[in-house]
Amino acid sequence: MDFSLSEERKMLQETVGRFFENNYKDIKKRGEYLKMTDGFSREFWKESSNLGVINGLVSPAFGGLGSSGEDICIIFELIGKSLCIEPFLSSGLLSSTILSSLKNPKTDLINQIIEGKLLMSFAHMEMNNRYEDHFVETKAKLEKETWKLNGSKSFVINGDSADKVIISARIEGKVNDKKGIGLFLVDNNNINNRPYNTIDGYRSTEMSFENINGELLCKDNQAVECIIKTNSAGALALSAEAVGIMQVCFDLTLDYLKTRKQFGKSIGSFQSIQHRMVDMMLEIEQVRSAVMLASSTFVLAWSYLQFNNISGWDNLFLVLFAVSNIVLFGGVYWSKFAHMFYKPGAAIQKNLAEADGSRDNLPPPADAPEQFGLGIKREEPKHY
């Protein structure tokens, strides 16, 4: 079976990779971008639009050039390699995924995102939410044919720089009911934003709002389906981004082993070092294979089930996708930067929970794994 990229996707990979490398080859430039008002460079974002990078995250049916699992993986692996901080995840992928999944897609907004004229964010995570797709405490009430939203969201990527925000809110039912959820389009001018920086450099926001107007995009089953699809696409994107980061770490380490000398030889010639590098390479390939599996099998399965209106399979899909991500992160050393996607969530969750006195509701810390990577067991240090 041939897993190589098509000529079109090779061209996409080379063009976008060269573009990111030219703009992020100096790590100091990334620091300059982080200090900007929005936490990223709007000029670079506009250049990305002109080059067609954002197009690769949107379906051709809505003016884009890609949006398949393979396109998402190509672009976000390159984002990981460059540690790019522009809102490709929040605006380019998550928001456009929701807008294109509606029964009446918001084509005008999608086109504005592609052209780099509109920034959007998806606000779903809440203080007491443990990553459940259907857990929503924010309330929405219809008053004189106008929807009014009240509540808060604790973790909104690039939320303070967004022009518009898609907010999940509960129309009826209990906080963890699968039915009774709606997705609303809201102008960010009416939202109280408290921005903060995450460990990996991304800008996130805590949002609060009271009696703000919102446009209902969808509700009930369609809203939950949009949330599941969007979160799944985001998980795939972050997984691919982790692959890019791991590959850069491996390449930098390999270059160092070739140049660093000890006892008159490059340390890369020592057999014990070679064994460790081989283990790293094998694990990266395992991770890349898991991402390829997620980009093809799972994304296609979700699309097939939703296209044929087969209900009741969402939970199975999420379980399979979660297994893929466990395979991705579970066997990777912490030193390979995969923790960049775990530490921000853990740190932010703890800080926010401690701030409002609900620290006791946090899950207990996980026990240290007994094994690392390819059967390397955790053992006490030996003294010879």
Spatial shape: elongated
- The averaged pLDDT comes out at 76
Number of strands: 11
Determine the N-to-C terminus distance: 49 Å
Gyration radius, in Å? 22 Å
In the residues, how many domains can be counted? 3
For the record, the CATH class of the largest domain is Mainly Alpha
Low-confidence stretches: 304-384
Structural class: alpha+beta
Q: How many strands, which pairing sense, and closed or not: the largest β-sheet?
A: 7 strands, mixed
Strand-residue proportion: 15-25%
From the 3D coordinates, which CATH architecture of the largest domain would you assign?
Up-down Bundle
Share of helical residues: 40-55%
Using the coordinates shown, work out and report the CATH topology of the largest domain.
Butyryl-CoA Dehydrogenase, subunit A, domain 3
Q: How many helix segments?
A: 10
Please provide the ordered H/E string of secondary-structure elements. HHHHHHEEEEEEEHEEHHHEE
Structure description:
- The chain has 384 residues and is an alpha+beta fold.
- It has three domains: 7-119, Acyl-CoA dehydrogenase/oxidase, N-terminal domain (Butyryl-Coa Dehydrogenase, subunit A, domain 1), CATH 1.10.540; 121-219, Butyryl-CoA Dehydrogenase, subunit A, domain 2; 224-372, Butyryl-CoA Dehydrogenase, subunit A, domain 3 (Up-down Bundle).
- The chain contains ten helices and eleven strands.
- The strands form three sheets. Strands 1, 2, 3, 4, 5, 6 and 7 form a seven-stranded mixed sheet that branches. The protein has a two-stranded antiparallel ribbon with strand order 8-9. Strands 10-11 form a two-stranded antiparallel sheet.
- A hairpin with a 5-residue loop joins β6 (192-197) and β7.
- The N and C termini lie far apart (49 Å).
